[in-house]
Amino acid sequence: MRKIGSLPSGQQAKQFEDYLLTTGVEIKVEQSVDQWSIWVYDEDQVEHAKVELNEFIAHPDAEKFQGAARQAEAIRESKIKKAADSARQQVNVRETWNQPFTSRCPVTSLLIGVSVVVFLLMQSNEFNSEIRQELSISSFQTSGNMIRYSPYLLDIRKGEVWRLVTPIFMHFGITHILFNCMMCYQLGGAIEFNRGSTKLALLVLFTAIPSNLAQFYWSGPGFGGLSGVVYGMFGYMWMKSQFDPQSPFYIPPNMVVILIGWFFLCMTGALDEIVGHVANMAHAGGLGMGMLIGVGTTFLKQAGKSN
């Protein structure tokens, strides 16, 4: 914001402010002892505003400066209405805790429900091994501490394509599943409530598959969890909130700090002894894909409007 000059009366300052608003320039008027200072918000509009101010000072009764008050008021009312509409439409991830959830967010509920059921079944020695074999991205054999598997995803090539997704339902500790389900509830619920179940389901698929593949080629099939998808949801909403002016999503700054900080902390390996082996490549793959989808869909929408 830059000061471009001053006017001797409040009436003139208001008249000039109304006129500039009709040309798309917003200013701030500040009263001092015997004058009204004119400040321009947008640096790119400063030179244009200076020219107009000089002309107004020289010819305040010129026709173009007259009768702008009504049009300016209409512009202000329109902006207030748009701001109010945007505020009503905005989805804050914290607000999903207060929404009737299951009926409005069936995909999110399904992700959490299946994960909980699988987790409970895996607590039984009778089902643990069988479930891991069926849901892992690749079947494997164990020998002591060694895991043997084919790096060529033979099961998927034979038609067991569900394995590209189903590792997201396996969790290996109470902290693991509680954290993932809580974040899925918040982020997935916000996306599904605003974008619909179909788009959330597609986002889950497009983040689960690359994150699972990235982790498999990094460390093999001994992984699982919703965290790659959760980071994908976070990345999508984060980019939407940053680059799409019409986005209803809002990510609290403290959530950005926590999730990005946790991401890099896990990458260091400092938490392995506390939380166990962390699927860092799944986190990275999900986050990257979610951010790409968020940015990509935003720019495609903007390009479509410009055409």
Question: What key phrases describe this protein's structure?
Answer:
elongated, 9% strand, three-stranded antiparallel beta sheet, two-stranded parallel ribbon, mainly alpha, Alpha-Beta Plaits, 12 helices, Rhomboid-like fold
Give a short synopsis of this structure.
Helix content is 62%, strand content 9%. By secondary structure, it is mainly alpha-helical.
Radius of gyration: 28 Å
Lateral strand order in the biggest sheet:
1-3-2
Query: Number of folding domains?
Result: 2
State mean pLDDT (0 to 100 scale): 87
Provide a count of the helices. Answer: 12
Quaternary structure: single chain
CATH topology of the largest domain: Rhomboid-like fold
What portion of the residues fall into strands of 2 or more residues? 5-15%
What is the chain-wise order of helices and strands? EHEEHHEHHEEHHHHEHHH
Uncertain stretches of 5 or more adjacent residues: none
Distance between the termini: 32 Å
SSE map:
Elements: E1 2-7, H1 10-22, E2 27-31, E3 36-40, H2 46-58, H3 68-89, E4 91-92, H4 106-122, H5 125-135, E5 140-143, E6 146-149, H6 154-157, H7 174-195, H8 197-219, H9 227-243, E7 249-250, H10 253-268, H11 272-275, H12 280-306
Parallel strand pairs: 4-7
Antiparallel strand pairs: 1-3, 2-3, 5-6
